Amino acid sequence: MTFSLAHDARNVYANFIGGRDAPAADGRTFQSFNPTTGQVWGTFADSSAADVDAAVGAAASALDGPWGRLSPTRRGRLMMRWGDKIAEHADRIAALETAQNGKLYAEMHTQARLVQDWLYYFGGLADKVEGTVVPHDRTSVFNYTLREPLGVVAVIVPWNSPTFLTIMALSPVLAAGNTVVIKPSEVTSASAVELARLAEEAGIPSGVINVVTGLRGAGEALVDHPKVAKINFTGGDAGGRAIAAAAGKRLVSTVLELGGKSPNIVFADADLDRAEAGVLAGIFAAAGQTCVAGSRAYIQRPIYERFVDRLVARAGRIVLGDPMKPSTQMGPVATATQLAKDETMVRRALADGAEILVGGERASVPEFPEGYFFSPTILHNLSAGNCLLREEVFGPVLGVIPFDDESEVVAAANDTPFGLAAGVWTRDLTRAHTMARTLQAGTVWINTYRAMAFNSPFGGYKDSGLGRQNGIHAIDQYLQTKSVWCELSSEIQDPFVIKV
Length: 500
Description:
It contains 14 helices and 23 strands. With about 500 residues, the protein is α/β, with parallel strands linked by helices. It folds into 2 domains: about 10-260 and about 465-480, Aldehyde Dehydrogenase, Chain A, domain 1 (3-Layer(aba) Sandwich); about 265-445, Aldehyde Dehydrogenase, Chain A, domain 2 (3-Layer(aba) Sandwich). Helix 1 packs across helix 8 (about 215-225), helix 4 runs antiparallel to helix 7 (about 190-200) and helix 10 (about 270-285) packs across helix 11 (about 305-315). The longest helix is centred in the first third of the chain and has 21 residues, at about 105-125. About 50% of the residues are buried. Keywords: Oxidation, Oxidoreductase.
């Protein structure tokens, strides 16, 4: 199947509310751009508080109606059927996402197919949610617990892996019996609408999955809505703080998967071929636009110069270009704003004393003269306070730093506000597992990088977020526990004495 990167006037999307397309109540729209061509790609509804209210209302009605009346087993089966539908349409979904965020079609296609595993896993957990019987000293009491859905959950998704991150967030939410309003990034809104349409085709009742597209105002209205019971947000730490503060005012909890400044640590005894591939994948795959990007490479001093030479040589050969072509290894960054940020961060790092080893500027791709391409970049001579060691770039920019021993590198790796992920490359198993315990990160990869699975918890320490995605316990975050007491005896109790 062939897909075009060119602008198509038919790329017009409304909101998806209660099983139907719904233009913005006030008729406003906004445009998205194709980062490969730099041209307008599509037009979307620019939602207001009125649109958000309609979506939350539809979700609440579905919870009180057909979705709430379904057995957990039937609910789980519908989730699995939805996963099948998404896998069937993976080609189209991947092409939509590549056209909107510039990531490689091959990666977007893999992600669109992988989400089937998430929906099967959590669909299978839907009827494994169980209460308990509580034993009491007073044997006439029958006390048990029920675990019930929270209600309407808001899911706010970024632009870097839209389908994958949407389904990763939604799967435990739906398995727990909640309904959803999705607010996708304004950069990549199309796939969220398409996913909701496929949910309808799979038989998921109307109103269970709703999508409101728009800018910041739509997201704020969703966070502030009084009928939203929980918020799942993936994005930057500044946005996460604002959402947590707003949610706290309503005593609503959040799951936040935020930024990272992940260290990739290479010891002298590592398999250098594997380590080289892992460091390159950690920062240049997806043009560095991933929350777990290994943007700090700590390399033990005995191998520092030759390993850096290898990284520089390989980075200089990375093929930039059309992300739809199999031969392309790195596409553009997703937005003009991100492109400008990459340039700014490199300039700041240089002002702080760093030096460029390769890249450091916009890249010229003749086929796409207006595309948002940035060269794979490596810098060294970074002081401890350099911005590249403290702040998330979210672009293809790597800082390399030498170290001598384990204690030194652990201190340096942990010296950041973030704690999402870390990589360790070594043949020494004792060292590997010791490092895993001392690194302040929610995920530690040993002799691998960017690995993830539906049944393994994922989330961050420190400023990298709250709560966990994936794994059996993720569903607990979207349930509330009710205690039910039943007195079985006919004895009349003293009305002025508490029953114990």
